[in-house]
Fold these 4 entries.
Entry 1:
Amino acid sequence: MKKILTVIGARPQFIKAAPVSKQFLNSEGVCREILVHTGQHYDWEMSEVFFQQLGLRKPHYHLGVGSQTHARQTGTMLARLEEVILAEGPDAVLVYGDTNSTLAGALCAAKLNLPVAHVEAGLRSYKKSMPEEINRVLTDHMSNWLFVPTKQGMANLQKEGLEEGVHLVGDVMLDTALLVQEVLSRQKPICERFGVSPESYAVATVHRAENTDNPSNLQDLLIGLAQLPIAVLMPTHPRTRHAMTTHGIDVKSLDNIRFCEPLGYLEISDLIAHSKLVLTDSGGLQKEALFHGKPCVTLREETEWTETVESGWNMLSGSDPAAILDSASMQMHANHRPPFRELCDQYYGGGKASERIVSALIAEV
Ligand code: UD1
């Protein structure tokens, strides 16, 4: 029987791994998955809630790495992962996305001469100052299987001479969104908890280092959001909350923004599904807006998910308040966008990415 060791550790990885891990469970007898949680994210609402809501299996190992500088965090992961990988002796190591947990998992496996599989390969922002860009480029170049979500990702890899082991599979985040569709349809809109009615508010999230670590960027972004003509619900990542305190940002002057704790997957999906607009610097939310047929403004200068912009469902604003307001107004008033369900199939593989990934691994490992 084949053994795949999966490394996850940060919030988006729990969401991406859920449907793939389910496929592994369906293939038990042929292929066994060992799940390792690095502990990069550790707060209940950044980690445990996703396991509960998405039925993700309990990790076999929890490395308890926690928050540190990038080098220390990645280095601690490497040392602890090496022990687990040596003890388990897997046939391949599977990693997701672009976090420090991704890089540590791939590098540790490569150093032990084990093949690496990368889900969400090929994405590029072409901005080397982003820690995620470094993590994903290095991981792709160490990987034996590159599971690519989009055609743009395929073109990016080709430019770097990466052709072997490349599979266009679609986006596992669409698989996850479809997994919970039925539960969501039975749920009462949670926006009422925040005192707003469906379609009368925007959802915003901000957590990228380029936005949180630069006081003037963060201040500008919040000023832009606070001036929107509709209420803004903002589940706040711990990094952002710390940054707001450190930079001395006065939340009282931002009374149009309702800050709350980070939300679980079901809650954020529901909030998006009943919103008028999504504003975010997260890669995941840009697509989740499209999955629910909601327009998006991306609070960055570039995106890895270029097809969302080409279709008109997404617009890039950067952090300038006037640009945020203009983009939001255009997105709220635009008509004639292509139907989103067809785009999800066309761009993101129609909910079959995890099935394709596990079939390829079973056939090729
Ligand atoms: C990480 C990923 C980013 C991903 C994001 C999703 C890297 C380089 N970045 O960024 O790509 O989009 O996760 O959330 O891997 N913290 C807590 N509790 C937690 C986790 C973090 O309080 O459970 C705080 C700590 O103060 C920590 C800070 O958030 O120092 C940053 O956490 P870290 O995991 O280093 O990076 P993220 O910003 O979450």
Entry 2:
Amino acid sequence: MNVTVVGCGYVGLVTGVCFASLGHKVTGVEINEERAARIRDGIAPFHEPGLAERLGSSLAEGTFKVSSQLDDAVDADVIFLCVQTPMAADGKLDTTFLADAAEELSQVLSGTGRRHALVVRSTVTPGTTEHLIAPIVRAHNPMVAVASNPEFLREGSAVSDFMEPDRVVIGLNDPWAAGVVADLYEPLDALVVHTTPSAAELAKCTSNAFLATLISFSNQIARIAEAIPGVEVEEVLSILHKDRRLSPVVDDQTISPGILSYLKPGAGFGGACLPKDLSALTHYAAAVGERAEMLEAVMEINETQPSRLVSIIEDELGQLAGQRIAVLGVAFKAETDDLRESPGLKVIDLLLEKGAGVSAYDPLVARDAVEGLTEKGVGFAPNLGDAVRDADACLIATRADEFLELPASLDAVGNERAIIVDGRRLLDPETLSGPRKYIAVGRSRKEPTESAGASSL
Ligand code: UGA
């Protein structure tokens, strides 16, 4: 089938290249010439495991090409809109790029005299496909069916998420187009859910709001646990995880579902999706007359989590002015080089405000990728050892495997004094040797006493 993907960012490029590797003929439209040229040369513009290989082979086989012209969409049976829907200053979604792309596309499709399915894949709030995009396009060509097909791709595993989807959601009121879009996914043998565009859009926002809620819930419990001497949040949450409704027993084997990894405390959620989608859903709720109090609380807990981490360091070191802190992990999570809404970067700003000296390191992020860091006086280290050599405290901000080596790295560079603040509960305190101080988020720093907690009863 002929497919056009408009926008070659995370979602568009992964979608286009994966469809190409399923045997479809795909054109990726990218207006940023520099990005288009790199993709044409087989260079993925961001780190995504498995993408560069598939891009290279689909370019070589001629199943994927890059264009900067929307005109190339005239031959497409299905056109995916994968342009950015960033958060506007008021916290709502900015759909300008999406509407502009639809407007431009509608000119291209006006004279084709044939049917096309136009699919909104960018994350949007309910009603966007039917009430914003469909009228723009159908005014020029009433034969265009407009659909919602939200993506559920995680950065760092986007290619495998595409190739082995939990479900493919197609929100569409037109049986012809619903069949055409479903046929595209046919080689994946996936569960396809057909629904309305608004239900598909809300399902996507709901999915991200749910993940965010689990993370803030865990951080809320961690904050309570930190106040109780001798109580470990890990133990408390692992008791929760053992509930068979969360960890079912099948054939005498306990299944540990992936979702449980979101039921752990940490530095808070970041990235281009969870914070933005949560904010968008909250504003959407208000627009339909519902206050989303719970989602507001989820956002508030998340926004204050970086300062909680800084407070932990401050409680241990006292005044932060003049102290040197190594922040390990500046991407928003491990296995990505994406810096958007990164808890690590927020922690760095808070530390700088308090007069601390900061060194930073991330295994996947290049020094010059982080704008303004050098100007702010942050030393961006080329390796873990250099980052922690002179540190008074080391803060783990992402779950990168390399940070498991932190205690050994500190030993190797002869730094005996640095405390470790584990913002992701990555290290196993049992494996730490010597007198080094280790503090993890959700771990009480108070000694257990007989009267612990009694005053609050
Ligand atoms: C998220 C969703 O997981 C995808 O299903 C969705 O398609 C995507 O947003 C999107 O809307 O495009 P992503 O932002 O890449 O994907 O990240 P996740 O891996 O879900 O991580 C989100 C946050 O949760 C991060 O801050 C991360 O540190 C945290 N996280 C992630 C955990 O706390 N535990 C985990 O096991 C994984």
Entry 3:
Amino acid sequence: MIAIPEPLIVANWKMNGLIHEVVDFTKKVDGKLKTFKHKAEVVFCPPFQAIAKASESVKHNLTIGAQDCFAAKRGAFTGDVNPAMLADVGCQYVIVGHSERREHHKETNKDVHDKVLAAHDAGLKTIVCIGESATQRRWGMTQAIIRRQLLESIPKSVYADDIVVAYEPIWAIGTGKTAKNEDIEKVHEAIRNLLLRRFGEAGQGVKILYGGSVNKKNAKKILALGNVDGVLVGGSSLKADDFWEICQSCP
Ligand code: PGA
């Protein structure tokens, strides 16, 4: 029997936050986790420059992650950061394939695939982001896009335990528009079926997060949906109190 995964709540600060702000947030959320009643894992992904300080500030159960990595092990890649470097500053997770990376840096499924492999080699778990654009949705292509992104982004050699999948419809990110609950359930069910086909029974244990305008008001309903094992939160994670309310919305 594969146990139902405990919820995973992830704060993605994107390109926001100076070190003092990151440390302040880390201490607040980590301090609250000391007496957290819910069985859930909470991950904070600050911007690169503040990761080390965030890791040093953790005393309890807050987990630190990064927002991206480069796939090469070392070499002449000016400005890039590899997964071993992230592990070195205390990261346990790395987000890969976020739609903002795909859009602004032209990252492909193959790039995401290579990043997952590299992260796996360095002992990091990856949060693999997938999701359709507004146009793709209008054309009824959501399921096909999700399927392709998932199949092409997950390397053959990784295990179910190594990855988390985040479904983030692009049109819902930072827009205040959340996908309808029934649509979230439908897509998450399709993702679950693909994971079961890919990993066998172990696919049941892969966490599937929803992301896209999650806030303290809608988090509880979203977290209660079938096959939703957590949320990836951008804008609403920037204030510790709001993010903490989202953490407390876990079933
Ligand atoms: P949002 O961002 O919560 O601001 O919509 C989510 C994300 O991009 O991960």
Entry 4:
Amino acid sequence: MGKLTYVKSASQLLCIDTGHGPRTGKGMSMLGIIADGSVVIEDGIIVFAGSDALAAQFLGTRRGEVEVIDASGKVVAPGLVDPHTHVVYAGSRENELELRLQGEKYTDILQRGGGILNTARSTREASEEELIRQALTRLDRFLLHGVTTIEAKSGYGLTVRDELKQLRAARELDRRHPIDVVPTFMGAHAVPEEYRSHPESYVNLVIEEMLPAVAERGLAEYCDVFCEQGVFDIAESGRILEAAERLGFKLKIHADEIAKNFGGAELAAKLGAVSAEHLLKTSEEGIRALAKSGTIAVLLPGTALFLMEWAADARSMIDGGVAVALSTDCNPGSSPTVSMPFIMNAACLTMRMTPAEVLVASTINAAHAIGRGNEIGSIETGKRGDLVLFDVSNYRQLQYYYGMNLVHTVIKNGRTVVKGGVLVDRNEPAD
Ligand code: IZC
Ligand code: ZN
């Protein structure tokens, strides 16, 4: 019998049980709260979730070493899931923040060879080990903010060699760090400078060389495209994603981030994409299409804030039956943050999502957005022992106190990795 981790006396245990598929409508407000709750984890898997009284009985049937974690006065939630990051990159772009404060547009900076192309230059120059080193620091910070699983996109290599390098780095992060990393290929993130005069050749390179090379090596589960005015149009995005689907990739789209009614949401729905991300400028028809296709809306309110734009219309999406998930969009241009708790605050305050909806969107719906809805995102027997203990006595306080990191303890696969707000175990192999 393995080692048991016993988390007890939570003032609120937020079970957020799975149900069938991602939560929509009123289902986004159901947290499955147990007052005075306990969780028992054995060999990394949850074997009990329920009341303290029943937990004591359950433990009476078990033997072996038990690590007891007292959660009294705290809220215990599933480990947070961040379903949209560009965490593997080198360099930083604080100069662009100042340019944008002076009125320059994000897309104009990209057109001039800055933006994503700036990060592509530093990412191409960096060695694989250097990319891993920089991203490990970011992953430590994710963990300190209660995040136990993330998605990570490529898209700063923009050559076959450098896209593979970024994806190998993501795989290495998954291996070396307690956080689980789900990889997405995003070679169609920008047209690199050397293809500026003939962008169609770059689309061909993505389809004919990059996608097969990534598929052959099993380096990504998803394929994503930056479908945007001046980047990849609807026809190009469609071609790339259809080719990806034929190779077995699941689909995501950066949709309707900047240009109004560009049609990204409609394309995501038409292709049956797992998720459409951003959706700041999506039309009412786009929202209806997402609801109908069951495509998850991954919303990134930190990006809207950082680009000084209006946030996505989360209320119309939730009220219209779209499953909404939340994410940091962690990247060096439009959202340099790892703080899911801050994003959760922003979702509440800039998109009027309720504290309960925010929690569902950051756990079970985020897990479904990366194909992990059956393993993580809720506290139920059989799921991974990924938990976060917040220093608040009820879940509503998580959105009431804002801009603070209230994460006290993080448990990943049954192991305590953050204690008292401090990293205690990073699990980097010695080699
Ligand atoms: O580096 O600017 N929007 N991709 C699409 C980004 C933002 C990341 C970046
Ligand atoms: Zn993104």
